[in-house]
Amino acid sequence: MIIKTIKNIPGSEITDPLVFQQRRTIIKAMAAMMLTGTSMRNSWGDTAKQIWSAVPKSRFSADALTITPADHAKNYNNYYELAFNKEDPSSLAQSLRIDPWSVEIGGEVEKPGTYQLEDILRQQTLQEYIYRFRCVEAWSMVVPWVGFELGDLLKTAKPLSSAKFVKLTSVQQPEAMPKQRNNAMLEWPYVEGLRIDEAMHPLTILAVGMYGDILPKQNGAPLRLVVPWKYGFKSIKAVVKIELLKRPPISSWNKFAPNEYGFYANVNPDVPHPRWSQNSERPLGSGFFTPRRQTELFNGYGEQVAYLYRDMDLRHFF
Ligand SMILES: Nc1nc2c(c(=O)[nH]1)N[C@H]1C(S)=C(S)[C@@H](COP(=O)(O)O)O[C@H]1N2
Ligand SMILES: [Mo]
């Protein structure tokens, strides 16, 4: 297995003056809150909305994509801690508690620690990432996420050379999560993982918003992973813990049905799910007569990510 380092990735200097302006806005807003003793709790919504709606576009945002109507992305969800259907998470998620929120970063790093979300955001550059998103169930959407590179956050913890994988863990809130409370289906908490080079890839983001607004709870607020070239189940919601590991973590779906959901889960039209074809997909919000979309290898991001899998048999490592 070839582990590429961040050096292989084209330079990611951001020159857009909006980025600096936005960072200043965040810092000023945070400073004001701290001075007046206002907690994030009270002013999060307003401040975030103001900033989130004005973030510059990442260089990976594809302008040619037709964005999925927000109503569809916000009301057709997979959130198994809450429900096994797509319709209920949007209402059930409203009782999740997401403020205050902290993220623990540990494992093979020089500087482990637990960080408040606002402290993380203060250090990161938010951008808009318009990405295709493909669920393993063969529906898809195009979402304008607001977020920052996972790699940028990992670098602040100074990964050791022994860090080969990244494990991400979702929140446990059995009081607000019916399926977690009943120990139904998956082993909770929800866990996902990436190889370190996948985690450091600039396409891999942690999202805190979508459609120019803060992330709805049902979509994984306040902080969720988005890996656009992999099936949606890799994009873990409500992240509370990030661990850098020597060995691959066992992810929730992989553990539940290892023959159906691989660790890699790269979108691949030529590798069918044991029970259905992955050849095409139904774009959310498309009409009954709209033709299905042909699914693309790596969900159309091959130019950016194919090198990560150069020497791998994608049928074996599905
Ligand atoms: N914690 C958690 N994260 C999760 C899931 C989940 O059930 N729990 N479902 C995954 C799946 S299968 C998909 S397709 C996407 C759905 O994200 P969306 O509801 O924002 O469209 O979230 C992923 N992340
Ligand atoms: Mo999914």
Please explain how this structure is put together.
- The protein has 318 residues and is of the alpha+beta class.
- The protein has helices at 17-36, 40-52, 70-75, 89-92, 117-123, 150-156, 178-181, 196-200, 252-256, 302-305, and strands at 102-107, 113-116, 127-134, 139-149, 165-170, 191-195, 205-210, 213-214, 224-226, 239-245, 280-283, 293-294.
- The protein has one domain (17-309): Oxidoreductase, molybdopterin-binding domain (Sulfite Oxidase, Chain A, domain 2).
- The protein is 24% helix and 20% strand.
- Helix 1 runs antiparallel to helix 2 (40-52) and helix 1 runs antiparallel to helix 5 (117-123).
- The chain is globular, with a radius of gyration of 19 Å.
- Bound molecules: the ligand Nc1nc2c(c(=O)[nH]1)N[C@H]1C(S)=C(S)[C@@H](COP(=O)(O)O)O[C@H]1N2 and molybdenum atom.
- The site of ligand MTE has 16 residues, from loops.
- Molybdenum atom binds at residues 78, 135-137, 232-233.
Secondary-structure-based class equals alpha+beta
- Helix share of residues? 10-25%
Number of helices: 10
Number of β-strand runs: 12
Low-confidence stretches: 1-14
Mean pLDDT: 89
What is the rounded Rg? 19 Å
Label the CATH architecture.
Alpha-Beta Complex
Q: Which superfamily, in CATH terms, is the homologous superfamily?
A: Oxidoreductase, molybdopterin-binding domain
Distance between the termini: 15 Å
Q: What is the string of helix and strand elements? A: HHHHEEHEEHEHEHEEEEHEEH
User: What spatial form do the alpha-carbon principal axes imply?
Assistant: globular
Largest sheet: 7 strands, mixed
Number of domains: 1
Bound molecules: the ligand Nc1nc2c(c(=O)[nH]1)N[C@H]1C(S)=C(S)[C@@H](COP(=O)(O)O)O[C@H]1N2, molybdenum atom
CATH topology: Sulfite Oxidase, Chain A, domain 2
Highest CATH level, the class: Alpha Beta
Strand-residue proportion: 15-25%
Binding site for Mo-molybdopterin: 77, 80-81, 135, 170, 219, 224, 235-237
Protein name: Protein-methionine-sulfoxide reductase catalytic subunit MsrP
Domain Oxidoreductase molybdopterin-binding: 97-252
Subunit structure: Heterodimer of a catalytic subunit (MsrP) and a heme-binding subunit (MsrQ).
